[in-house]
Design a protein that fits this description.
Elements (H helix, E strand, L loop, with lengths): L2 H14 L3 H6 L8 H15 L5 H6 L5 H11 L4
Helix pairs in contact: 1-5
Length: 79
């Protein structure tokens, strides 16, 4: 499992008491409320030192873990 994916799974499971298997497959809006999603966004931006582009930010609740991981990889030059 890559480092970004592992970090996000652990953070979401620990912080929001979400089932690990659900984190791997479900869109974020099915796992947490809108304030939790904002908290997740802030954690990602702080941890990976970038800001989400507005179009991605506005739709992150509809995104799956893998889509978010791919976005972070792109922002971090593929790492």
């Amino acid at each position: 499992m890559n480092e970004i994916r592992e970090f996000l799974i652990n953070y979401i499971v620990d912080k929001f008491s979400v089932d690990k298997e659900d984190v791997k497959t479900e869109p974020m809006c099915y796992l947490m409320d809108s304030l939790d999603i904002v908290d997740l966004i802030m954690e990602i931006e702080t941890h990976y030192n970038f800001e989400f582009e507005e179009d991605f930010y506005e739709t992150i609740g509809e995104r799956t873990l893998d889509e978010i991981v791919e976005y972070i990889k792109q922002k971090n030059g593929g790492r």
